[in-house]
Amino acid sequence: SAYDSIYCSHNLEHYHRHEVKRVLAGFHHVLKSDGFVYVRVPDMSAVMRTVVEKNLDIDDVLYQSEAGPIMVRDVIYGYGREIEESGNDYYAHKTGFTHRSLEAALNAGGFPVVFAATGDLEVVAVALKSMPSPYVCSLFDLSPARA
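^ thats the sequence. predicted structure below, dont judge the formating
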């Protein structure tokens, strides 16, 4: 109960599915009662749709990033170049998320209030321990009717 918020960008997919609940429980534990977690993960549903729509193979480039070309394989299994160059298997993806599965994971981790959206091959979510205060709503442009 010490922190107002947690920012978790492209990290949850690096844990096995059964570990995600423990990670989220840890987030829940350190957040104040009106705290929130902001999560970004690859959107596996959007990746799969794009692969089918564009008839891509696993080794085809899905998009260009500042780090260089990102292949379909990189989004599913982790950034191959980083894994190879570092020798660190932590960079591998061990699970994946869709809008629905991220919301369910956050709920199971003790966050009953979740606002999630998709775009740019990502799922972005704000999860709260309780109904948001007017201040938190203003941070994310959430109207009380949506909260």
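The mean pLDDT is 92.
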